[in-house]
Amino acid sequence: MKGFVSRSLALFGATLAAAAPAGGTAMSETMHANYRVSLIGVPIGVAVANAYVAQSHYKVALNVRLTGVAAWIASLRMALASSGSYQDGELSPSGYATIASNSRETRTLRMAMSERAVRQIQYSPPWYDENNPDRVPLTEASKHNIIDPLSAFIMPAPAGESAVGPAACNRRVPVFDGYTRFDIALSYVEVKEISTRGYSGPVTVCAARYIPIAGHKPDNKSTQFMANNKDMNIWLAPVPHMPLVVPYRVSLMTMAGTAVIEASELRFAP
Q1: Which residue has the higher pLDDT, 268 or 18?
Q2: What kind and span of H or E run contains 73?
Q3: CA distance 186 to 168
């Protein structure tokens, strides 16, 4: 479950991209979004995201919980937070933390970073599986030139490019979630028109692929399924006041059926 959640989160987070404001004008933007989560058409959870981006720094928070019948089965709740610097169109995470709890246990992870490299990780309770011979080894190189899953909410986009169209999609995002290292590759598909509370207008549809790099178990059925999964797409909505795009909808095939994360509300404020 942990691996699936982190992969889905990174896929979700990898869709929010930021570019430096044109003309060097000092700007900031806040985003509030409510998302509904469903599996094979059945509501199973909700997520609330809040992000703040300024010319020099950013903060992102995400809270996820299961609802309805899914909550009776798993009682899963997750709280995530990330922050770092944002200068000259470059993103550099400094801190990432997660708290995940269910009816049986609570797990926390704290990760300190600088210059896009992991400097320290704390697990509670301790994680002893890192050196499992069934896993692809996590080397120091695999912990450099990365971002955490939640910082993927704020990714630099090519300066001067439109926030609607191919430039919003075409990228490969290197992610380390504290346990595994993987890439999310996005590619342009089309532009659609949508309407939800707080936003009406165009969204860019991207195809997505999950590419495991290290820390995973190659023989794991879930990992193999996701690596071969070609049924994943993401819809990106442009932010009105800054050259940003944010996730409106994520759809991916899972081993249990199609999962969809879709915004019921997207609000922005300068």
Answers
A1: 268
A2: helix 68-74
A3: 9
How many whole angstroms separate alpha carbon 37 and alpha carbon 66?
Answer: 8
* Number of structural domains the chain divides into: 1
Q: Is the pLDDT of residue 81 over 90?
A: yes
Is the dihedral angle over the CA atoms 167, 228, 252, 138 positive or is it negative?
Answer: negative
Domain around 41: 2-269
Tell me the whole-structure pTM to 2 decimals. Answer: 0.86
Residue 167, H or E segment:
helix 166-169
- Does residue 16 register a pLDDT over 60? no
C-alpha 270/C-alpha 250 separation (Å) is 25
Q: 56-63: long-range contacts at Cβ-Cβ below 8 A with a sequence spacing of 24 or more? A: 56/85, 56/86, 56/87, 57/83, 57/84, 57/85, 57/86, 58/18, 58/83, 58/84, 58/85, 58/86, 58/91, 58/151, 58/154, 59/83, 60/150, 60/151, 60/153, 60/154, 62/9, 62/150, 62/153
> Percentage of residues in the chain with pLDDT exceeding 90?
58
Residues sharing a CB contact under 8 Å with residue 26, sequence separation 6 or more, in sequence order: 55
Instruction: Give pLDDT, residue 26.
Output: 44
CA distance 17 to 259: 23
Does residue 12 have a pLDDT over 90? no
